[in-house]
């Protein structure tokens, strides 16, 4: 990891020194154990603060829209897929973007780490190859990195950036696409069971909109929840119906566009299982149209195209 | 006074018969203040609840009154929660936040009956913090792990019992009614020792902060400080002192209710005018407002910093925008950046 961090610093410094870019968006060490935090380097000196670790979990594609000048971004697989999707939606200009691609094995989920110390505060985390040493006040636990990854990372088969201008480190071996077992199990439930789950899960929602704001694909100038004429949705949070409406519309807006980076779920302070909904659309889009969002620059956005082969089961009773 | 830990469920059960009792309750990977129906539901093991105790007095969405238009005219009914409450297991930072919020909801210009009725009818039983988190910085903002401000009783965990310190008359009569035994000198000494050893490791220097904020509104510091902020409301909604709200009508035709909802300075529509003009056009102005409100305007108005150092914003920010680092940057800010 530290080797990758050095290479990222070097690449960023070079770009800024040679004035090829005005800004490098990457990560620096955060203020909590093993926490990478988004960082904006505009000078070679600032680039010295860039880093790379197992908790560079934020999707940096979120910061690229409307940035003036030439911008370089330190981008792992999911960040690049979001960038590709945003380029296709004319939200990013490829010519003004320099992608420093970083192959990614997955980022660790601090909530899973916290569970290992059973309630004690995590005070330090040391990376040690494929294992982590997690230290609390009077205890220390060693665990495998692979067991602590975010679920989205565990299921991701696009750790390698699909496009880049420069690659840091080496491409990883291809990984098979994960199954959709969790989604299938949810689909197998009865309508009433699914509804009960939604009611219980979204009664936790505090409408802070961290999920929406963490998502690189949520970029409407005015979100439908903020509009009050017409008022599409109740503004109060005591009504779980409105919380569900918010999430369902958000997720529908993302159908065919969501790259399953998991940023929404990671941002949620209330621990709501948001990926269940977004991944359901990922599964549907894959099954119906054999498409995935942001995996190449050539395919048009799947829900913005029509072909004679498109399934019409929802239109016609055959 | 003293109460054994094994007697806590019984103590709470007795209170439940007379009061609506709120206590931290396990909800998945964290705890939340919820009304409990059995004393065994209270869980004091977590350092603090995910959402602060403020939501009991100032709920995220609060019905103020309902209205119905009938042939005879409009009927308006006020919704005032007058239920007697006990908040059990509140941390000193959250209790102090209510003392700060009292300034907002009860001053020479406004008295908010919804908040004040609940405050007047509530007994606060706090629990001191034997092992504060590394992100707790209450001592930097006039608090402490065993602060009694805003409390009626304070519990000090001495192992298999809590030493109960009486803070107010309300607390005293509740403790007497419950028939709590007197603490021995040894118990009191144990409590004193615990208080001594509990240390806040995190210090945030606020020297000169207010003076800087008095002058730096237009300084370049604000151009960069917000840059990673996503503009979500997680920090404000989890904050025990944030208190901005919006009032809406939840109505169909002429029947409905007026509701007060939490609002957040981080949101784009927070200051959006009816004309379409927005004086806070970007995250920069919005994030500056959050810092200014807590560390300058509130100080101007009430002579107190509107932060109790609970660390919730630090632990829950999706991008690790850490208020401690921001305050340090603000303190070091210059009228111009050299670079």
From TrEMBL, chain A:
Which species is listed as the source?
Sporotomaculum syntrophicum
The protein in question is named 4Fe-4S ferredoxin-type domain-containing protein
Provide this UniProt record's keywords sorted from A to Z.
Answer: Iron, Iron-sulfur, Metal-binding
- A Pfam family found in this protein is Fer4_8
> Recorded GO terms, molecular function?
iron-sulfur cluster binding; metal ion binding; oxidoreductase activity, acting on CH or CH2 groups, with an iron-sulfur protein as acceptor
Quote the InterPro entries the UniProt record gives. 4Fe4S_Fe-S-bd (IPR017896), 4Fe4S_Fe_S_CS (IPR017900), FRHB/FDHB/HCAR-like (IPR045220), Helical_ferredxn (IPR009051)
**Superkingdom field:** Bacteria
Write out the coiled-coil annotation as residue ranges. none
Domain 4Fe-4S ferredoxin-type span(s) in chain numbering: 194-216, 249-279
What Gene3D superfamilies does the entry give?
Alpha-helical ferredoxin (1.10.1060.10)
Automatic annotation (TrEMBL), chain B:
PANTHER family named among the record's database cross-references: ANAEROBIC SULFITE REDUCTASE SUBUNIT A (PTHR40447:SF1)
What organism, scientifically named, is this protein from?
Sporotomaculum syntrophicum
The record's SUPFAM superfamilies line, in alphabetical order, gives: alpha-helical ferredoxin
* Pfam families found in the cross-reference section: Fer4_22
4Fe-4S ferredoxin-type domain ranges (all copies): 218-250, 295-329
Arranged from A to Z, the UniProt key words for this protein are: Iron, Iron-sulfur, Metal-binding
- Which InterPro entries does its entry note? 4Fe4S_Fe-S-bd, 4Fe4S_Fe_S_CS
Indicate what this protein is called per its UniProt record.
Anaerobic sulfite reductase subunit A
What molecular function does GO assign, one term? metal ion binding
Q: Does the keyword Iron apply?
A: yes
